[in-house]
Hints:
Blueprint: H1 2-5, H2 28-46, E1 54-63, E2 66-67, H3 74-84, E3 88-98, E4 104-115, H4 120-129, E5 149-153, H5 156-160, H6 164-173
Antiparallel strand pairs: 1-2, 1-3, 3-4, 4-5
Helix pairs in contact: 3-4
Amino acid sequence: xxxxxxxxxxxxxxxxxxxxxxxxxxxxxxxxxxxxxxxxxxxxxxxxxxxxxxxxxxxxxxxxxxxxxxxxxxxxxxxxxxxxxxxxxxxxxxxxxxxxxxxxxxxxxxxxxxxxxxxxxxxxxxxxxxxxxxxxxxxxxxxxxxxxxxxxxxxxxxxxxxxxxxxxxxxxxxxxxxx
Length: 179
């Protein structure tokens, strides 16, 4: 959806099945960069079509040094929102492009997001929407969770899941020609 906003239509959208576990001592920015690079390389290795640029991204939500999970259950969403309520957190998204020659170019972007204090009712309502399932930090800013945002410092599209300015810059640097 974000790529379509800037006129990019991928030839294919493929899931990269990689281990997304956080390595011991790994910081959020490093984690996002590693996962985006691994995803780009994994898909490039699978690709059977003509030479292509492979774009991958990974978004990580961090509260201090703590990396929050991609919420897989209602309880995980609830835990994330209880932690994030009334405080600021960082959202890191890394984009990586695998080039036909095998090289990978990547970049990470950080946006600071401040949430209002969240009541039990606000959290319960959001959990019941199921929007936070599969989302880093248990929320999707482009949906109902936007009502929690007291302030944002940085790229909104980064928090959605792909910083468009930096993505375009990396793609252009790799030779991509916009239509």
